[in-house]
Amino acid sequence: MSNNPLPPLVLKLGYAGLIPFVGLALLVQLAPTPINYLSAESLAGYGAVITSFMGALHWGANLHNLGKATTGDRWLDRNAWIWGVIPALVAWVALHIYIPVGLFIMASTLIIQRNIDQNTYRLYFSDETACAAFMAMRNRLTYIAAFCLAWAAVVILFIQA
Questions:
Q1: 130-160, pLDDT tens digit by residue?
Q2: Nearest to residue 159, comparing CAs of 36, 77, 72?
Q3: Residue 63 CA to chain centroid, in angstroms?
Q4: Are 81 and 55 in contact (CB under 8 A)?
């Protein structure tokens, strides 16, 4: 029996979310033209969706505070709401520029999000063990996703050039 406090479904869905990152990054490198270009566009789109989703987690986690008196915590009362939309805006901009640059921007945004979230998720969890387990999963998912985005950008800029 596993000591991981996260439900198996959470783990399965989280790690399954890497399949498009890994598969599309491989297609960017290995598929013939125009499949490699379509794969790069699809990877950028998926990267934008996941980047936005990670920001939206703050809204979801903070919804239980709506309608209540302010908590007195600047993060919960104000900054979580603002931070929750910034990744979506960055990802949206990244979709409108040269694809490899956009891929690098989204990879960087995922890493920045992770760095901020490691200090803020503790406010959303009532159990430290569950928070630690979620962050361990989040770290792996973030680094693999960011690597795939950055690798595809490198392939486009330097290997396929």
A1: 999 999 999 999 999 999 999 999 999 999 8
A2: 36
A3: 20
A4: no
Instruction: Look up residue 114 and give its two tokens.
Output: 């992770």
Alpha carbons 47 and 25: distance in angstroms, whole number? 11
Residue 124 is given by DSSP the state T
**Could you check whether the bond before residue 87 is cis, i.e. omega within 30 degrees of 0?**
no
* Two tokens, residue 37: 């270009």
pTM of the model: 0.95
Element (H, E) at 55: helix 35-62
In whole angstroms, give the CA distance from residue 34 to residue 37: 5
All residues at 6 or more sequence positions from 146 whose CB lies less than 8 Å from its CB, including other chains: 107, 108, 110, 111
Please report where in the chains the tokens 């479904």 appear, as a residue: 9
Between CA 47 and CA 95 the distance in angstroms is 9
Q: What is the pLDDT of residue 3?
A: 84
- Determine contact, residues 134/6, Cβ cutoff 8 Å: yes
Whole-Å CA distances, 96 to 36, 48, 128 = 19, 11, 39
pLDDT digits (tens, 9 = 90+) for 53-72: 999 999 999 998 889 999 89
